[in-house]
Amino acid sequence: MLVGAQLRRLREARGITREDAGEAIRASHSKISRLELGRTGFKQRDVADLLTLYGVTGEAERATLLSLAEQANQPGWWHAYGDVVPDWFEAYLGLEQAACVIRTYEVQFVPGLLQTADYTRAVIRFGRGDAPDVDVERRTDLRMRRQRLLHQPGAPKLWTVIDEAALRRLIGGPETMRAQIEHLIEIAQLPNVTIQIMSFNAGGHAGAAGPVTILRFPEGELTDVVYLEQLAGALYLDKPADVERYWHVMNRMVIEAERPDATVEILRRILKEI
Q1: Are 150 and 229 in contact (CB under 8 A)?
Q2: What is the reported pTM?
Q3: Residues 85, 61: one domain?
Q4: Contact (Cβ atoms closer than 8 angstroms) between residue 212 and residue 250
Q5: Domain identity same for 142 and 266
Q6: Which of 83, 123, 173, 235 fits a disulfide with 228 by CB distance 3.0 to 4.6 angstroms?
Q7: How far apart are CA 102 and CA 96, in angstroms?
Q8: What does pLDDT average to in each consecutive run of 10 residues of the chain (274 residues)?
Q9: Distances (CA, A) of 60 to 3, 9, 51, 93, 221
Q10: What DSSP element (H or E) covers 101?
Q11: What is the extent of the structural domain holding 98?
Q12: Burial 208-236 (b: 16+ CB within 10 A, else e)
Protein backbone atom coordinates (compact mmCIF):
# COMPACT_ATOMS: atom_id res chain seq x y z
CA MET A 1 0.00 0.00 0.00
CA LEU A 2 2.79 2.42 0.88
CA VAL A 3 4.77 1.75 -2.27
CA GLY A 4 1.65 1.94 -4.37
CA ALA A 5 0.63 5.24 -2.81
CA GLN A 6 4.07 6.68 -3.50
CA LEU A 7 3.93 5.54 -7.11
CA ARG A 8 0.54 7.21 -7.44
CA ARG A 9 1.86 10.50 -6.06
CA LEU A 10 4.86 10.41 -8.40
CA ARG A 11 2.60 9.73 -11.38
CA GLU A 12 0.15 12.49 -10.51
CA ALA A 13 2.98 14.98 -9.89
CA ARG A 14 4.16 14.43 -13.47
CA GLY A 15 0.63 14.64 -14.89
CA ILE A 16 0.83 11.13 -16.33
CA THR A 17 -2.38 9.13 -16.83
CA ARG A 18 -2.82 5.53 -15.71
CA GLU A 19 -3.17 4.58 -19.37
CA ASP A 20 0.24 6.04 -20.24
CA ALA A 21 1.82 4.47 -17.17
CA GLY A 22 0.34 1.10 -18.10
CA GLU A 23 1.71 1.37 -21.61
CA ALA A 24 5.20 2.03 -20.19
CA ILE A 25 5.19 -1.33 -18.42
CA ARG A 26 3.25 -3.21 -21.10
CA ALA A 27 0.10 -3.43 -18.99
CA SER A 28 -3.40 -2.01 -18.71
CA HIS A 29 -4.49 1.04 -16.74
CA SER A 30 -6.39 -1.32 -14.42
CA LYS A 31 -3.09 -2.97 -13.42
CA ILE A 32 -1.67 0.46 -12.56
CA SER A 33 -4.74 1.04 -10.42
CA ARG A 34 -4.20 -2.28 -8.60
CA LEU A 35 -0.51 -1.51 -8.10
CA GLU A 36 -1.28 1.91 -6.64
CA LEU A 37 -3.86 0.44 -4.27
CA GLY A 38 -1.45 -2.26 -3.09
CA ARG A 39 -3.70 -5.04 -4.39
CA THR A 40 -1.12 -6.87 -6.45
CA GLY A 41 2.56 -7.74 -6.20
CA PHE A 42 5.39 -5.70 -7.72
CA LYS A 43 7.80 -6.75 -10.43
CA GLN A 44 11.14 -5.00 -9.99
CA ARG A 45 11.30 -4.31 -13.72
CA ASP A 46 7.87 -2.63 -13.67
CA VAL A 47 8.73 -0.44 -10.67
CA ALA A 48 12.07 0.55 -12.22
CA ASP A 49 10.36 1.47 -15.52
CA LEU A 50 7.71 3.51 -13.73
CA LEU A 51 10.30 5.39 -11.69
CA THR A 52 12.12 6.26 -14.90
CA LEU A 53 8.85 7.41 -16.48
CA TYR A 54 8.11 9.55 -13.44
CA GLY A 55 11.51 11.21 -13.57
CA VAL A 56 12.94 9.59 -10.45
CA THR A 57 16.63 9.41 -11.29
CA GLY A 58 18.29 9.77 -7.88
CA GLU A 59 20.01 6.52 -6.92
CA ALA A 60 19.02 6.74 -3.24
CA GLU A 61 15.32 7.33 -3.90
CA ARG A 62 15.18 4.63 -6.55
CA ALA A 63 16.99 2.16 -4.30
CA THR A 64 14.62 2.87 -1.39
CA LEU A 65 11.47 2.31 -3.44
CA LEU A 66 12.84 -0.74 -5.24
CA SER A 67 13.88 -2.27 -1.94
CA LEU A 68 10.46 -1.60 -0.40
CA ALA A 69 8.75 -3.08 -3.45
CA GLU A 70 10.83 -6.23 -3.04
CA GLN A 71 9.97 -6.44 0.65
CA ALA A 72 6.28 -5.93 -0.13
CA ASN A 73 6.31 -9.15 -2.15
CA GLN A 74 7.49 -11.22 0.81
CA PRO A 75 4.70 -12.83 2.88
CA GLY A 76 4.59 -11.58 6.46
CA TRP A 77 4.32 -13.83 9.51
CA TRP A 78 0.64 -12.90 9.82
CA HIS A 79 -0.15 -14.73 6.57
CA ALA A 80 -0.16 -17.91 8.66
CA TYR A 81 -3.30 -16.52 10.32
CA GLY A 82 -5.15 -16.05 7.05
CA ASP A 83 -8.04 -18.15 8.36
CA VAL A 84 -8.90 -15.47 10.94
CA VAL A 85 -7.56 -12.27 9.36
CA PRO A 86 -9.91 -10.44 6.97
CA ASP A 87 -8.34 -8.98 3.84
CA TRP A 88 -8.97 -5.41 4.97
CA PHE A 89 -7.06 -5.96 8.23
CA GLU A 90 -4.15 -7.85 6.69
CA ALA A 91 -2.99 -4.60 5.13
CA TYR A 92 -2.91 -2.93 8.54
CA LEU A 93 -0.75 -5.68 10.03
CA GLY A 94 1.91 -5.03 7.40
CA LEU A 95 1.79 -1.29 8.03
CA GLU A 96 2.00 -1.77 11.80
CA GLN A 97 5.10 -3.94 11.48
CA ALA A 98 6.79 -1.35 9.24
CA ALA A 99 5.94 1.74 11.32
CA CYS A 100 8.46 3.62 13.44
CA VAL A 101 5.75 5.64 15.23
CA ILE A 102 2.23 4.47 16.10
CA ARG A 103 -0.20 7.03 17.53
CA THR A 104 -3.63 5.84 18.66
CA TYR A 105 -6.76 6.93 20.44
CA GLU A 106 -9.20 4.35 21.82
CA VAL A 107 -12.54 5.02 23.45
CA GLN A 108 -14.12 1.61 24.10
CA PHE A 109 -11.26 -0.88 24.45
CA VAL A 110 -7.65 -0.97 25.53
CA PRO A 111 -5.51 -0.79 22.35
CA GLY A 112 -4.75 -4.20 20.87
CA LEU A 113 -0.99 -3.79 21.32
CA LEU A 114 -1.51 -3.35 25.07
CA GLN A 115 -4.08 -6.06 25.79
CA THR A 116 -3.60 -9.13 27.96
CA ALA A 117 -4.60 -12.52 26.54
CA ASP A 118 -7.67 -12.84 28.78
CA TYR A 119 -8.82 -9.32 27.93
CA THR A 120 -8.35 -10.09 24.23
CA ARG A 121 -10.47 -13.24 24.52
CA ALA A 122 -13.22 -11.23 26.21
CA VAL A 123 -13.13 -8.57 23.50
CA ILE A 124 -13.30 -11.19 20.75
CA ARG A 125 -16.23 -12.95 22.38
CA PHE A 126 -17.94 -9.59 22.83
CA GLY A 127 -17.95 -9.05 19.08
CA ARG A 128 -18.16 -12.69 18.00
CA GLY A 129 -20.25 -14.45 20.60
CA ASP A 130 -20.82 -17.47 18.37
CA ALA A 131 -17.14 -17.96 17.48
CA PRO A 132 -15.79 -21.46 18.23
CA ASP A 133 -13.08 -21.72 20.88
CA VAL A 134 -10.40 -22.57 18.31
CA ASP A 135 -11.23 -19.39 16.39
CA VAL A 136 -11.03 -17.29 19.56
CA GLU A 137 -7.65 -18.78 20.44
CA ARG A 138 -6.26 -18.18 16.93
CA ARG A 139 -7.31 -14.53 17.07
CA THR A 140 -5.90 -14.16 20.57
CA ASP A 141 -2.60 -15.72 19.50
CA LEU A 142 -2.42 -13.31 16.57
CA ARG A 143 -2.87 -10.30 18.85
CA MET A 144 -0.23 -11.55 21.28
CA ARG A 145 2.15 -12.11 18.36
CA ARG A 146 1.61 -8.53 17.20
CA GLN A 147 2.77 -7.23 20.58
CA ARG A 148 6.27 -8.61 20.11
CA LEU A 149 7.21 -5.61 18.00
CA LEU A 150 7.14 -3.41 21.13
CA HIS A 151 9.99 -5.44 22.63
CA GLN A 152 12.18 -6.07 19.58
CA PRO A 153 15.35 -4.12 18.66
CA GLY A 154 14.41 -0.90 16.93
CA ALA A 155 10.88 -1.12 18.33
CA PRO A 156 8.44 1.58 17.19
CA LYS A 157 7.39 4.42 19.44
CA LEU A 158 3.82 3.78 20.63
CA TRP A 159 1.97 6.82 21.92
CA THR A 160 -1.62 6.12 22.86
CA VAL A 161 -4.46 8.04 24.45
CA ILE A 162 -7.03 5.80 26.16
CA ASP A 163 -10.43 7.11 27.16
CA GLU A 164 -11.17 6.59 30.85
CA ALA A 165 -14.36 4.77 29.83
CA ALA A 166 -12.29 1.97 28.29
CA LEU A 167 -10.47 1.49 31.59
CA ARG A 168 -13.60 1.39 33.71
CA ARG A 169 -15.63 -0.88 31.44
CA LEU A 170 -15.32 -4.36 33.00
CA ILE A 171 -14.52 -6.34 29.86
CA GLY A 172 -14.25 -9.98 30.94
CA GLY A 173 -15.19 -9.17 34.53
CA PRO A 174 -13.32 -7.62 37.51
CA GLU A 175 -10.47 -10.15 37.63
CA THR A 176 -9.65 -9.83 33.94
CA MET A 177 -9.87 -6.05 34.14
CA ARG A 178 -7.61 -5.83 37.18
CA ALA A 179 -4.98 -7.92 35.38
CA GLN A 180 -5.33 -5.64 32.36
CA ILE A 181 -4.79 -2.49 34.39
CA GLU A 182 -1.76 -4.05 36.10
CA HIS A 183 -0.38 -4.89 32.66
CA LEU A 184 -0.80 -1.27 31.55
CA ILE A 185 1.07 -0.08 34.65
CA GLU A 186 3.91 -2.45 33.79
CA ILE A 187 4.12 -1.70 30.07
CA ALA A 188 3.94 2.06 30.66
CA GLN A 189 7.49 1.73 31.98
CA LEU A 190 8.85 0.81 28.54
CA PRO A 191 10.90 3.68 27.09
CA ASN A 192 9.14 3.41 23.73
CA VAL A 193 5.60 3.42 25.15
CA THR A 194 3.69 6.52 26.22
CA ILE A 195 0.18 6.13 27.64
CA GLN A 196 -2.14 9.02 28.40
CA ILE A 197 -5.65 8.85 29.81
CA MET A 198 -8.50 11.01 28.59
CA SER A 199 -10.23 11.68 31.88
CA PHE A 200 -13.99 12.08 32.24
CA ASN A 201 -13.14 15.51 33.63
CA ALA A 202 -11.94 16.55 30.18
CA GLY A 203 -15.55 16.77 29.02
CA GLY A 204 -15.88 17.10 25.26
CA HIS A 205 -12.59 16.72 23.43
CA ALA A 206 -10.97 16.42 20.01
CA GLY A 207 -11.44 12.64 19.85
CA ALA A 208 -15.22 12.80 19.73
CA ALA A 209 -15.21 11.28 16.22
CA GLY A 210 -13.97 7.95 17.57
CA PRO A 211 -10.91 5.69 17.52
CA VAL A 212 -8.03 6.53 15.19
CA THR A 213 -4.55 5.22 14.48
CA ILE A 214 -1.79 7.12 12.68
CA LEU A 215 1.30 5.30 11.44
CA ARG A 216 4.59 6.94 10.51
CA PHE A 217 7.39 5.14 8.66
CA PRO A 218 11.17 5.47 8.76
CA GLU A 219 11.78 6.09 5.05
CA GLY A 220 11.33 9.78 4.37
CA GLU A 221 9.84 9.05 0.96
CA LEU A 222 6.73 7.40 2.43
CA THR A 223 3.73 9.27 3.74
CA ASP A 224 1.95 8.75 7.03
CA VAL A 225 -1.19 6.61 7.00
CA VAL A 226 -4.38 7.13 8.99
CA TYR A 227 -6.25 3.93 9.85
CA LEU A 228 -9.95 4.06 10.71
CA GLU A 229 -11.49 0.72 11.57
CA GLN A 230 -15.17 0.02 11.01
CA LEU A 231 -17.45 -2.92 11.74
CA ALA A 232 -16.76 -4.82 8.52
CA GLY A 233 -13.87 -2.95 6.97
CA ALA A 234 -11.43 -0.09 7.35
CA LEU A 235 -10.35 3.15 5.73
CA TYR A 236 -6.71 3.89 4.94
CA LEU A 237 -6.08 7.60 4.39
CA ASP A 238 -2.80 8.86 3.00
CA LYS A 239 -3.67 12.12 1.26
CA PRO A 240 -1.73 14.96 2.91
CA ALA A 241 -4.83 17.01 3.74
CA ASP A 242 -6.51 14.06 5.48
CA VAL A 243 -3.37 13.04 7.36
CA GLU A 244 -2.73 16.62 8.51
CA ARG A 245 -6.28 16.90 9.82
CA TYR A 246 -5.94 13.76 11.93
CA TRP A 247 -2.50 14.77 13.21
CA HIS A 248 -4.11 18.00 14.38
CA VAL A 249 -6.80 16.02 16.21
CA MET A 250 -4.23 13.72 17.79
CA ASN A 251 -2.02 16.59 18.91
CA ARG A 252 -5.00 18.32 20.51
CA MET A 253 -5.90 15.14 22.39
CA VAL A 254 -2.47 14.74 23.97
CA ILE A 255 -2.87 18.28 25.31
CA GLU A 256 -6.40 17.66 26.58
CA ALA A 257 -5.57 14.27 28.15
CA GLU A 258 -3.89 13.79 31.52
CA ARG A 259 -0.11 14.16 31.44
CA PRO A 260 1.93 11.00 30.75
CA ASP A 261 3.64 11.25 34.15
CA ALA A 262 0.22 11.01 35.82
CA THR A 263 -0.77 7.80 34.02
CA VAL A 264 0.52 5.24 36.52
CA GLU A 265 -1.07 7.08 39.45
CA ILE A 266 -4.44 7.21 37.65
CA LEU A 267 -4.22 3.52 36.72
CA ARG A 268 -3.48 2.56 40.32
CA ARG A 269 -6.48 4.57 41.49
CA ILE A 270 -8.74 2.85 38.96
CA LEU A 271 -7.29 -0.52 39.97
CA LYS A 272 -8.32 0.06 43.61
CA GLU A 273 -11.85 0.94 42.52
CA ILE A 274 -12.43 -2.24 40.47
Answers
A1: no
A2: 0.82
A3: no
A4: yes
A5: yes
A6: 235
A7: 8
A8: 85 92 90 85 89 89 82 82 89 89 96 98 87 93 96 95 96 97 97 96 76 87 86 89 94 94 97 95
A9: 15, 18, 12, 27, 10
A10: strand 101-106
A11: 79-273
A12: eeebbbbbbbeeebbbbbbbbeeeeeeeb
